[in-house]
Amino acid sequence: MKHLLLIIVAVVCIAVVAGCADNSRLRDDIDRAGRLADTRPDSAIALLDSLSPAINQADKATRMRYDLMLIKSRDKAYIEHRNDSMIAPVVEYFTGHSDPDLTPLALYYAGRVYSDLGDAPRALDYFQQAVNAIGDDTIKRYGLYKVCHSQIAELFMHQHLFNYALNSAIKAVDLSSPETLHWDYEMIACIYYEIGTIDSSLTYYKRAYDSALKNNPAGISRVKQQMASFFYHCGEYSKADSILSTLMTNYPADLKNQVYSTKASNTIKIEEYEAAFPYLKWLADSGNIYGQTYGNGELANYYSYIAEKYDAAEKYDSAAMHLRSYIKLQDSINKITQIEAVEKVKGMYDYSIREKDNKILRTENRLRRELNVALAFILAAVVFIGWILFRDSNRKRMVLRYKNIALKSILDDTRKSTKEYQQEMQDKVDSLTKQLDVIDSVKATATELAIKKSEILLSDSILTVEERAQQYIRLLEKPVISYLKNGLTKGESLNTTKALVELEKCVNDIYPEFKHKLISICGVNITEYNVSLLLKSGFSPSEISKLLSKSNETISSIRRRLMKKVFNQKNASPKLWDEFISSL
Questions:
Q1: pTM over 0.85
Q2: How far apart are the first and last CA of the chain?
Q3: Cys bridge to 326: 297, 340, 372, 562, which one at CB 3.0-4.6 A?
Q4: Which pLDDT score, from 0 to 100, does residue 216 have?
Q5: Neighbouring residues of 436: CB distance < 8 A, sequence distance ≥ 6
């Protein structure tokens, strides 16, 4: 039996060591993929995909590292982020398990995700958190520090907050490497153009060109395209055409849309319509949605111009065809713009909700601190009273000692008369009595102060059972309760949002302190508040799941999470939360 126990312990130890070794090797492979993402993101994604079967068996730290490097690789490969389902747990993990390398990186890519989702306030918040997480270690992590400020500058620029954008862009330049310096100069030039400082804008475009020429020749064509667009918008069409002429034979494929758009616009401005035709034709057929819109619109003008100039009526058909395409594409762009506007408003709303929740949390923390101070005061008062009682006991022992000393003095000193002895003893007793009276007064004052403080802290209004029953009956008589109950019974379609607003008014009328107490006890989001509101109104969890269009498991999870948040009970029953809500 003893040998069998040793064998089992050995096997377990070997398994643990092997698991640690496997996790260590897996983390090394994940880190290698993260480094590879900086130069070859497609290869990094392929490497991470090959590791995915082993990730399911890895510990949480390894899984979070894997998800972070996968997000990084996809971002480097210009794969747009569609949701925050992957980055949210990563940020939560690395902010709870602070890592000097991975925590700032997770916060940065959270900013990148929300930037793609159009939530500029949240993206800015995460970029700033990443900068704060880097702290004083900017020299070691200057690359991440720099790109954070670049992203902040770009977001501010898109929000038309150009002064803030300029400040962040200048910080990015101070930390930029020679290979990427031309990008930062371009951004500063663009910001100066937007605020109307044309001379400064031109100066930074020239710096961008010189930097690209010296350190990154691959970026020269992009700088030229930006300069050509700058001169075009400034009305200097000859300079724009001169730059475009040097660019037309050598530029990256991803710049073709911008180059052709700028070339066509510039050629039309100098009234060389026929020279603009091939560029407009390519844009209308092969450009992105904005290029197609511009190309079809200008081709409609071009064919109308040809029809009028050469009296070619058949060209009007071509003009009409391109005009219809232009109108259709413009409608699509308008829809995209509306969606972006809605997302922006939603992002601002979500941000305001988070700020409101943070304010509530700050209020709760302040109240908690005040409560701690009050409790500390009570504790100090109790200690003080105990000390007074202890000193009072010592004083009594001292009085007894003095009496004994006085008695001994009488016996030893027979020369003193009885009258003198009595007077001396009376003086001592009077003195000690005065001291005891002072002690009793201090003790009474301290006790009274502690009792009053306790009454202030513990005072609360308590309703009888009959009063609570009357309140509940008044609530059940409300029309909105009947509306929701009947709708659930008959399976009718309900306007739940409007009903919840009306229900909240009814509950606040009958239980004026319900919402205030709930928010004071724990910061709740809108879903948690609606669940608690419906519980207070007498709806069962299954009815709540139907009204809020959520599963029974979700409703149970919300109640259990609230129990844990308020009472710190990990395995508490959701029913305990129902009973707690009934008591408010």
A1: no
A2: 59
A3: 297
A4: 75
A5: 392, 395, 396, 399
